[in-house]
Design brief:
Layout lengths: L4 H17 L20 E8 L3 E8 L15 E6 L2 E5 L1 E4 L2 E7 L5 E7 L6 E6 L6 E12 L5 E10 L7 E11 L2 E3 L9 H6 L5 E3 L7 E7 L5 E4 L3 E4 L4 E8 L1 H16 L23 E11 L8
Parallel strand pairs: 1-18
Antiparallel strand pairs: 1-2, 2-6, 3-4, 3-7, 5-6, 7-8, 9-10, 10-14, 11-12, 11-13, 11-17, 15-16, 17-18
Length: 306
């Protein structure tokens, strides 16, 4: 199993410190370093969304100095739903395997992945039931940034289960034009629930939410502005929608660690599939990777300019 993420973060901090300190040294000494022995293992990744087919990415982990190996196209991927065998997933190319089944919220999904020559890797997750958006508002001028430009915010009221641990993600969708949709990150976080998470992202638990509903305000920036002589510089606003995801605990844990990983690496993990071993949170037995899930609801689209 992967080492603890805290150890990974500490090691990464030490590596970055060395990178910045070495150029300042008056002398240099070559250090011969041989990476430790590495046992190649399967990597299994999948984000199961209610209402969509189950899709799994299968690859092989490689040691620190090796190039990523090609995706695995000869694996057997068995899918179990609520502990009952459902089907063998079909290989659709580039290491991806897909089911005929449409995932349903409230169900548990387990995969057994066998690659010739390797022990069977297993992983499981439950897709949580969705929570509803009760009200959605857009605030055109929520505050002023350091450059004197106003920034907007969304205000979302949603259901909550106060006696149950629930994990959420709020995604802001901005429709700049017909063929492009952006998702800005939170900016200048003021909500106490998000502040409690300690990261500039809208992934959070209901640990501090006491009631059956909660209203969250999320400031955001798009980075664009327009200028006229009559108004001066004005932040550009576009049609906006919010998506409320009710996510599994494994999603919550992984996505926060992924954010820290991507501070020092450019390639998103869940969006493209993992081809190497990254020592992030994993729920795969006899391998690496993550199987997780979520259900979601979307608000109406609000055009701030109207």
């Amino acid at each position: 199993m992967p080492t603890n993420k805290i150890n990974r973060m500490i090691r990464r901090a030490v590596e970055l410190s060395l990178i910045f300190l070495l150029p300042l040294s008056s002398c240099h000494k070559k250090i011969d370093w041989n990476p430790p022995e590495f046992d190649q293992q399967p990597v299994v990744n999948g984000v199961i969304k209610s209402g969509s087919p189950v899709t799994i990415k299968v690859s092989l982990a490689v040691k620190f100095t090796a190039e990523p190996t090609p995706e695995v196209d000869n694996a057997e991927v068995l899918l179990y739903v609520n502990n009952e065998y459902n089907e063998t997933l079909e290989h659709i190319g580039e290491g991806f395997y897909q089911s005929q089944l449409i995932a349903q919220e409230g169900s548990e999904y387990r995969c057994e992945v066998t690659i010739p020559g390797y022990p069977m890797a297993t992983c499981a997750t439950r897709v949580p039931n969705h929570q509803n958006i009760l009200k959605f508002e857009h605030i055109n001028k929520a505050g002023i940034d350091e450059e004197g430009l106003t920034y907007p915010a969304v205000k979302v009221t949603f259901d909550n289960l106060p006696d149950t641990s629930v994990y959420y993600e709020i995604v802001i969708n901005i429709f700049q034009h017909e063929d492009y949709k952006g998702s800005p990150n939170p900016f200048h976080i003021v909500d106490p629930v998000l502040l409690n998470e300690g990261l500039p992202m809208a992934v959070f638990s209901n640990e501090l939410i006491e009631g059956s509903t909660y209203t969250m305000t999320i400031n955001y920036q798009m980075g664009g502005a327009s200028y006229t002589e009559s108004t001066g510089w004005v932040t550009s606003l576009y049609p906006v929608q919010v998506e409320l995801r009710t996510v599994s605990q494994s999603y919550y844990k992984f996505i926060k660690q992924q954010y820290l990983y991507e501070l020092a690496n450019s390639e998103p993990l869940l969006s493209v599939g993992v081809t190497g071993s990254y020592n992030l949170y994993s729920n795969v037995h006899n391998g690496y990777g993550i199987l997780t899930g979520y259900s979601s609801v979307k608000s109406e689209i609000i055009d701030p300019n109207s």
